[in-house]
Amino acid sequence: MPRTPGRIWADGDRDLAEGLMAALRAPQDDREEEQAIAESLTHPLHSYPAKLHPATARILVDIVGQSARRPQPIVDPFCGSGTTLVEIRAAGMRAIGIDLNPLAVLVSRAKTYTVPARRRKEIRDAGHEISGQVLAAGKAARRSGAAAAPIRKPTGFDPNARNRRLASWYAPHVRRELEMIAAALDDLRAHDPELADVLTACLSAILYKVSSRASDTDPTWVEKNVPRGAAARYFAQRVELLFAGLGDFPPGHPAEVFEMDARRMAEVIPDGTAGGVITSPPYAGTYDYAEHQRLRFDFLALRHRQLDEGEIGSRRSFETNAEAQQFWQRALADTLDAIARALAPGATAAIVIGDSVAKTRAVFALDDLRAALTDELVLEAWASQQRPLLGGIEKRVFAERPKAEHIVLLRRR
Question: pTM of the prediction?
Fold first, then answer.
């Protein structure tokens, strides 16, 4: 959500509509408070494209949580990097996340890893020990005659193809440091896979920072002078950040996070058992999550074929498939049907969705969502905020009707 304020309009139940308007304004109203929320808990651990602002998520958790009965879970079927799950856990409620992206599952689990103090200390101790080992190995490698550490060869992956895909993105000394961290996590995984996965999320968080890739969403190659030892130190900093953030959660259980298509959520959430849903489905034709995270997939050896094949509303699908709009609308309808089935009677769902440009056509998300509603869901309230137009195509396709981002509140009959 951009920081630039835009005109807001709303309808439906007055109190609920005002709450949704506040959620849209949250990233813009009080910069100091908003920044404090964004930097709280485990929110800053890992970057992620189109991340929901934590201040918005916090308001929506409050709204949706009012109709939830414990121990009913609050569900995010497109959980991404876990922003909403973190806020659900912070509110002391049970959280369930679903995402087809294996990286999203890895990061969400780490950010909501609610465990006793002793176990949190193991995270910090193991992370700093690995960082120290890598720094020491780096100093030893600079001595005359020292042999370079071997490059990892993850099982089931072609090492030559993997090396070709990674070689141009990292300076040799950076690549060695990263591979040493990953190798240490492989060793840890042999006897403590849970702890290894949590620390792998910390490694993932720094992979673009020390690469020559401009950002998560921009694959432009840029020159970066990454000092020796920086990767190991950045890794330790992320471990420390995670350790501190996890300590701020109230007692409870970690979020349950499943790698699967949101439309299949009935496989893990029995009908009529969810106390609420808060989610932001992909905006049609806007992002390619599989492409944005491919460097991380390659380095961490994460299998992502299901994401490649099943990603909803991806930009590449609109560029290559003439029927992409119909597929998107059908997927949205199937998702809303799955949400309706999961919700307990009287429970609510907050859906954050935005207008977009799919190839060269405007997609008005609120229209698509309304058309996809089933009889089981009642539209209680909605709020929309005008968004700035980026580039000539958006200015042309949104010339007669403003581009907006929406929050819709639905209630299960």
Answer: 0.95
